[in-house]
Amino acid sequence: MSLLAIIGGCGVYSFTGVAITAETISIQNFYNEAEGGPPDLAQTFTNKIRDYYQQNTNLALVRDDGELQIEGSVVGYRISPVAATSSGNNQLADLSALTRLTITINVTYINTQDDAFNFENKKYSWYEDYDSNQSLTAVEGDLIDQIYDKIILDIFNASVANW
């Protein structure tokens, strides 16, 4: 048997850099506590984070009481102007060239094997900018996916990757 097969089969090391000995994870449904945004904002996040952990670890997803536990809520959904541009015709009002969508997620992580890795009510926030000439409804789904991907990577690194 090769060394590679031994290392890969022991369940302690993964080639994603994740070193965990737990076998199960429970990720509760996230709640939407943010004002604004689409009605499925929290459910979309829940599905994406579950998929990410299943694709990037050997952890079995269980309904409750996993050795690793994640729960939280979407607490912020904000749209704000970013960059102003002059209209060029000496008008007093300038227009915003870019608009920013910012999403904030509040997360609690429990590692039942080693509470040194636990964190409670930790906020993760990312944003994406889009051209103000575009309607939010036209780009919202893509922006949310991009923001969620960044937030999930941060949560993953803080929990199982120990970064």
Characterize the structure shown.
- There is one protein chain.
- The model is unreliable at 1-16 (pLDDT under 50).
- It contains three helices and six strands, in the order αββαββββα.
- By secondary structure, it is an alpha/beta fold.
- Strands 1, 2, 3, 4, 5 and 6 form a six-stranded mixed β-sheet that branches.
- It has a single domain (22-159), classed as 2-Layer Sandwich (Double Stranded RNA Binding Domain), CATH 3.30.160.150.
- The longest helix has 24 residues, at 136-159.
- Helix 2 crosses helix 3 (136-159).
Task: List the main descriptive attributes of the protein structure presented here.
elongated; six-stranded mixed sheet; Double Stranded RNA Binding Domain; 163 residues; alpha/beta; disordered N terminus
